[in-house]
Amino acid sequence: MDRQKTFKNIEPAILYFGTPVALISTVDENNLANIGPVSSVWALGRTLLIGLECGSKTYQNLIKQGECVVNIPAACLFDKVERIATLTGAQPIPDYKKTRYQYEPDKFRAGGFTKLPSDMVVPPRIGECSMHFEAVLRNKIVVEDDPVEQGPIAAVEVRVVKIHVDESLVIKDNHINPEKWEPLIYNFRHYFGLGKELGKTFKAEV
Ligand SMILES: Cc1cc2nc3c(=O)[nH]c(=O)nc-3n(C[C@H](O)[C@H](O)[C@H](O)COP(=O)(O)O)c2cc1C
User: What average pLDDT does the segment 98-125 reach?
Assistant: First the structure.
């Protein structure tokens, strides 16, 4: 350690320490497609864990219909993501969101996103995103008593069944070129791209 740190105890509203943004596409019982921006998503093998408010349309659709596409936008799409940030497909809008969110049944139109058909699931893919993970619902853990959330939240486990990647990012047939891929990072409610590369892990194949 080159500097002796001193630490302060704080209670920030959120703990979003910088994770990539994903746009979750789902469909409702009338096959109407919705998009839910999230930053709480991570991968283990072909399993993704997605953190969702239970009051979101995304959660409701995913639990009822059982499928989603996890679409990964590049950093340059941040303004389109922000265009749908104050919208919800949920009606009625949950009380705690009423003052800051508006109901919007068509976020593809509102955000200027293009629907592409999926291969294995009903929800469409988002054409502007660089990667699409088609996925099916496996499990959920509902948390009712989080000290700062205003309603129940859930960790939703989905299994990826088909992967689509923008061809210009693919190298050596089956790898994503990390020098070309620029995820959109949600860093304490600010959008960032990546800084310069620092190195690679011993397992890196490209
Ligand atoms: C960049 C970004 C990241 C977000 N991350 C999450 C998240 O991880 N989980 C979540 O439930 N909501 C998250 N939200 C808020 C939801 O997108 C918001 O509640 C939205 O209204 C959900 O839409 P829906 O009700 O149509 O599903 C995020 C919003 C933005 C803009």
Answer: 98
Is pTM beyond 0.70? Reply is yes
Could you tell me if the CB of 19 is within 6 A of ligand 1?
A: no
Task: Classify residue 2: in a domain, yes or no.
Answer: no
- What contacts 153, CB < 8 A, 6 or more positions away? 51, 52, 53, 54, 142, 143, 146
Q: What is the pLDDT of residue 51?
A: 98
Check: CB of residue 13 under 8 Å from CB of residue 148.
Answer: yes
Domain boundaries, position 166: 17-192
Q: 52 CB less than 6 Å from ligand 1?
A: yes
**What residue owns the CA closest to ligand 1's atom 11?**
52
Domain count, the chain: 1
Contact 173, 165 (CB under 8 A): no
Distance between Cα 53 and ligand 1 center (Å):
8
**87 CA from centroid of ligand 1 (Å):** 9
